[in-house]
Amino acid sequence: MATRSANLLNRYLLGLLIRPLLLSIGVVLLALLLERLLRLFDLVAATDNALDSVLLMLLYLVPHYLGLALPAAFFASIFMVVARLGDDNELDALLASGRSISQTAQPFFAVALVLSLFSFYLYGSLQPYSRYRYHQVSYDAEHAGWNARAQENIFSDAGGGFVLTADQVDATGRGLTRVFIRRLGSQGEEEITTAQSGRLQPSADGKTLLLHLEDGQLVHEDPDRQLLKVMFKQGTFNEDFNPDAPPFRARGESERELTSLELWRGLHQPTPPLPAPQLAGELQARWVRALSFPLLPLLAVPLGMSAKRGRRAPGVIVACLALLALQHGVQFGESLAEAGRAPVIAAVWTPLLVFGGISAWLFFGSLKTPGDNPVTRAVSAIEAMLDGIHLRRPKKSAPHSVTPRSRT
Question: Of 103, 216, 221, 369, which has the most beta carbons under 10 Å away?
Fold first, then answer.
């Protein structure tokens, strides 16, 4: 009977945890992707495959942003669940029934273990491939052939140093008004052409662009840096504007594009493909990030329990600072290790050990008195000190009123 009740409570706590966890991950991912979406549209604005490229790049960015959002979302979910249990007095009922804080936190540690195993795959395999594919799609979008259609007030790169823009463009994208053209020669010489109107006409094979201009002028700079100015009534440019871009590089130029297995194999090769400190620092940093998940409940549970006593804001602040310190500490240690300024193990694993020690200290320190931990005691001490300062502050005396004497 006791085992059945414990299983029911565990399923209940898991149900409370999963919903805010999924919601938090979705909100954070959406916010991060929307921020990047505007830059992606600017990148592929002048290509035919703009929508396809944007969708693909967003898809390949999901693993990267998921790695950033998952720890914060998991911690926030535990904090909200524990705070809700305290607000509804359910936590008091669980403790009164004989269920300890450690037993109550067991479902959170089980989810942390699952997320940790998933993170080994996320950081070690999925992110390296998606990072490479993102750069590949970005490269293809930047080097895609121009569609021979201009956009108002946007510089269109037709290839071969030929760039044009127009103040006004008709609905077809071919009729131009107030045209500006810049062309670079093979020896760095520059040629500027302006015209009142123009019209684009690509050839049938798509390799040649005919640009008919009217009422314009051309300023040409020869290799000797001498300027030549020519006025014309009508003129035609004939340009090769769609050169084939060279293929994208092979995967593995950066250690962040290598899987964890490839990093491990590279470290044990006689001649590593990249410097050994870079490979070791990247591999150890991935392990540290994946192993940080079981430590998050140790920090979230005591801070969530203290929220019932009106300490929710300090707990959130302490948690944000701790997570940021862990993230930046691992990055800093990785940089030190890759630069050869510190041993890899000490530089990368020290932030995790410090974070784990502080989290364990808060968790086990609150087992005897749930809701009471060093953070709440520090906040209470600060409030008492501020109240003492307020009480010792001298009060302003009220002005004396003078009552005039009546004449008899």
Answer: 216
